[in-house]
């Protein structure tokens, strides 16, 4: 589904510089992946790269296979083909941020359907199917500000699935939830999403989530030997 190697991405904050290195990373369909690491290690930076919203400083190979021949994402990034990258995100990627990221001026139903409408793949009846499966049918006509945090994350998951993407990127999806709600959301993410043909990629610093079944685990760790006084260097390793 996704393969990259030789990737380096940097971010600057004032005089400080953060650098994340990925020697090799392969994400396969139907293999839910957990990316863990302490706060500030670079998990969100990696998710932004995988979500095609952050341009790496350099990359040897970056391929995305949706159907048929793989798409050379590295070439699209090199020639700054933002239109093609937007189409890739719109068609094949779902995103689930920490606090839901719902638009306050849309109803729950319209929030869920927005990605499918943008990709022109809205399917009659799929909203009802999703909302029943995720236990949010009674929320559809509400506005986001009427929802609890747990309900917002369920709605966010429905929205991420609405256009039937190949991959969902969930960045700390349980960080704002109590343990019971967090466990419920994580179980839905890791169990229901694959049943819809979508592979979840979940970033977290919560080791309690390791008890949930995942096929692959990665760790983003600060390289204590890398960088200099003004640089924090991190790397991605398999566990």
UniProtKB/TrEMBL annotation:
SUPFAM superfamilies: P-loop containing nucleoside triphosphate hydrolases (SSF52540). InterPro entries: AAA+_ATPase, ABC_transporter-like_ATP-bd, ABC_transpr_LolD-like, P-loop_NTPase. GO terms for cellular component: plasma membrane. Keywords: ATP-binding, Nucleotide-binding. Coiled coil: none annotated. It comes from the Bacteria. Pfam families: ABC_tran (PF00005). GO terms for biological process: lipoprotein localization to outer membrane; protein localization to outer membrane. Residues 2-239 form the ABC transporter domain. GO terms for molecular function: ATP binding; ATP hydrolysis activity; transmembrane transporter activity. SMART domains: AAA. Belongs to the ABC transporter superfamily. This is ABC transporter ATP-binding protein.
């Amino acid at each position: 589904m996704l393969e990259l190697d030789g990737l380096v991405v940097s971010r600057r904050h004032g005089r400080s510089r953060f650098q994340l290195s990925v020697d090799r990373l392969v994400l396969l369909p139907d293999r839910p992946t957990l990316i863990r690491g302490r706060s500030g290690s670079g998990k969100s930076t990696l998710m932004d790269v995988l979500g095609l919203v952050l341009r790496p400083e350099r990359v040897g190979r970056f391929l995305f296979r949706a159907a048929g021949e793989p798409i050379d994402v590295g070439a699209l990034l090199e020639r700054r083909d933002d239109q093609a990258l937007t189409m890739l995100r719109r068609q094949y990627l779902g995103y689930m941020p920490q606090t839901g990221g719902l638009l306050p001026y849309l109803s729950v139903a319209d929030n869920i359907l927005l990605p499918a409408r943008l990709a022109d793949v809205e399917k009659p009846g799929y909203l009802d199917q999703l909302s029943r499966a995720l236990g949010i049918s009674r929320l559809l006509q509400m506005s986001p500000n009427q929802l609890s945090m747990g309900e917002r994350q369920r709605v966010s998951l429905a929205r991420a699935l609405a256009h039937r993407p190949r991959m969902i990127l969930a960045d700390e999806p349980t960080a704002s939830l109590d343990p019971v709600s967090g466990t419920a959301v994580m179980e839905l993410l890791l169990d229901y999403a694959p049943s819809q043909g979508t592979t979840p990629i979940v970033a977290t610093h919560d080791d309690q989530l390791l008890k949930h079944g995942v096929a692959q685990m990665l760790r983003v760790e600060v390289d204590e030997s890398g960088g200099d006084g003004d640089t924090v260097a991190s790397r991605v390793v398999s566990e």
